[in-house]
UniProtKB/TrEMBL annotation:
<feature type="transmembrane region" description="Helical">
    <location>
        <begin position="114"/>
        <end position="133"/>
    </location>
</feature>
<keyword id="KW-0472">Membrane</keyword>
<keyword id="KW-0812">Transmembrane</keyword>
<keyword id="KW-0997">Cell inner membrane</keyword>
<feature type="transmembrane region" description="Helical">
    <location>
        <begin position="85"/>
        <end position="108"/>
    </location>
</feature>
<keyword id="KW-0808">Transferase</keyword>
<dbReference type="GO" id="GO:0006744">
    <property type="term" value="P:ubiquinone biosynthetic process"/>
</dbReference>
<feature type="transmembrane region" description="Helical">
    <location>
        <begin position="42"/>
        <end position="64"/>
    </location>
</feature>
<dbReference type="GO" id="GO:0008412">
    <property type="term" value="F:4-hydroxybenzoate polyprenyltransferase activity"/>
</dbReference>
<feature type="transmembrane region" description="Helical">
    <location>
        <begin position="12"/>
        <end position="36"/>
    </location>
</feature>
<comment type="similarity">
    <text>Belongs to the UbiA prenyltransferase family.</text>
</comment>
<keyword id="KW-1003">Cell membrane</keyword>
<keyword id="KW-1133">Transmembrane helix</keyword>
<dbReference type="Pfam" id="PF01040">
    <property type="entry name" value="UbiA"/>
</dbReference>
<protein>
    <recommendedName>
        <fullName>4-hydroxybenzoate polyprenyltransferase</fullName>
        <ecNumber>2.5.1.39</ecNumber>
    </recommendedName>
</protein>
<dbReference type="GO" id="GO:0005886">
    <property type="term" value="C:plasma membrane"/>
</dbReference>
<dbReference type="InterPro" id="IPR000537">
    <property type="entry name" value="UbiA_prenyltransferase"/>
</dbReference>
Length: 167
């Protein structure tokens, strides 16, 4: 069940979870800077990237619950669109995530080339994550969900720091 049991009401509960986590970097920026980003699109792109990343991996993780969701009348992307449809939606969200992370770097050239190295690494990890899960084989969901997403978090943090320090 996703944030506030939104899966009782909408198949887009994965996006609700994404929004819940996407506001964290916005809130952190506002707390530190005391103002909205300049240009304004930086925070919107960052929040959008986090939203798409989280919703994409939550859809992957929820594939293993597809039969339970259908039996219990819970709404989820896999229950609504089937395994193959859910995989395509997750892939689209992860592609949008990579584009939005790159957009942050375009808006903030001070992050330097290391940031884009990180975005490339994240895109590669998202592609690998997607390759681990098939519509008829969910055995590697834990590796896709826990291992890859943990690595993505560390790569993003590390290369943002390096980009800020080295420009």
């Amino acid at each position: 069940s996703d944030v506030c049991s939104s899966d009782l009401f909408t198949r887009w509960a994965h996006l609700v979870l994404g929004v819940a986590l996407a506001i964290a970097p916005v809130g952190a920026y506002l707390a530190v800077a005391g103002r909205w980003s300049e240009p304004p699109g930086v925070l919107l792109a960052l929040a959008g990237a986090v939203l798409c990343w989280v919703a994409g991996f939550d859809i992957l993780y929820s594939l293993q619950d597809i039969e339970f969701d259908r039996k219990e009348g819970l709404h989820s992307v896999p229950a609504a669109f089937g395994s193959q449809g859910a995989l395509w939606i997750s892939r689209g969200l992860h592609a949008a995530c990579a584009v939005l992370f790159a957009t942050v770097g375009v808006f903030m050239p001070e992050l330097g080339s290391w940031y884009f190295v990180g975005v490339g690494m994240i895109a590669a990890m998202l592609i690998y994550e997607q390759s681990l899960v098939r519509a008829d084989d969910f055995r590697r969901i834990d590796a896709a969900f826990f291992t890859i997403n943990g690595a993505i978090s560390l790569v993003f943090f590390g290369l943002v720091v390096v980009g800020r320090l080295l420009g």
